[in-house]
Amino acid sequence: EIDELFVSDTEMRLSLLFAPPVSISMSVLAKLESARRQGKLDLDFGNKLLRAGSVLNGDVPSENDVLRHLVRAFKLEGDVPSLMVSLSTLAVFFSLVDKDPMVGYEWMKANRLSFFSIPGFKSGILNDLSRLS
Q1: Each residue of 61-89: pLDDT tens digit?
Q2: Which 8-state DSSP code applies to residue 6?
């Protein structure tokens, strides 16, 4: 079972982040890796998320630690919480790929594999996340 995708600073496992049939998963992983290499990840926000989830013990996490703990593979089967991982992954992507969440959103709109590229598409992600909390 693949759970950790960002294994180390030099190794990344490729797995689905979002449900098929047409998946943008590999594009999102590549964009996150590109942002990591360019130093554009919003690590401050990632640190806050990890601290809120009690994942850290006072240590300052590396870029890879943030990605490893926050970006999870999508499982095609399982209970409802595990099936909802892709929803939180989308929110994490928008939050981490750049300090400005509009960078990730505009990138998604420009990516032909993304539903965001369909004119008039509305994700409803804020409403969905509000219902989950």
Answers
A1: 889 889 988 998 887 776 656 656 777 88
A2: B
